[in-house]
């Protein structure tokens, strides 16, 4: 009963591929039990548009999000007998008023849940390109520690304001970090105080951390989050779920065989499977053994993982 708690499609995300229906058909073909649509929330300021969106306006993003929700609901009904589909959104925390927008979206669209992500530090993207990551570094005077501290402070603001059920790629700030930066990340007691604070807060409200296999396709030898973070999360009895963070049908279930190996190596034996309840009840989850998660899973091109 494979699962993914975080995904995208080219229909509603310009750096992805394929339609939302193609994504869910691929998930069905691979034997997924639960699959979540979690397209990015819209951004309301023109300066927050990515280079790929230069031909768009912020209003276009809101229209696209509305179309996404309508399409997702149609697909959930169409394939209800084949797969459990949840409809959520991945957050964008860019500045403090991002929180107000996210609250409005949750209320307007009755989203099943939020995927809590931070893609910006001091309003500068940190995972879009290595050039922008370095721009964010320059903004804090070239101080690696300050960049990490600001990232985890932004994350804490997001967590305490919205309590997202799923916390995505917890250490995304490390994506483009070089060896020198990672030494600072590993050895800074101040950074790790914030990390531990954030982990404890997520646990306090019952959130789960995703094991995100997209890190493999981005050149990492491990998934998000890195082993040293997982060890701290385990120390605090954190719970985990699984995501492919796919950006199109070609990435559904991608590297799940490596994800399974990673879980086994890190001693994670159970994962949270999200469950959509009645309209009056919030989305919940049950813990399921890793071996059960991988049962009935058919990998890419019909090959077993």
TrEMBL record:
Pathway: Amino-acid biosynthesis; L-histidine biosynthesis; L-histidine from 5-phospho-alpha-D-ribose 1-diphosphate: step 8/9. GO terms for biological process: L-histidine biosynthetic process. It comes from the Eukaryota. It catalyses: L-histidinol phosphate + H2O = L-histidinol + phosphate. Keywords: Amino-acid biosynthesis, Histidine biosynthesis, Hydrolase. Residues 5-214 form the PHP domain. One of its GO terms (molecular function) is histidinol-phosphatase activity. Its EC number is 3.1.3.15. Pfam families: PHP. GO terms for cellular component: cytoplasm. Belongs to the PHP hydrolase family. HisK subfamily. This is Histidinol-phosphatase. It comes from Schizosaccharomyces octosporus (strain yFS286) (Fission yeast).
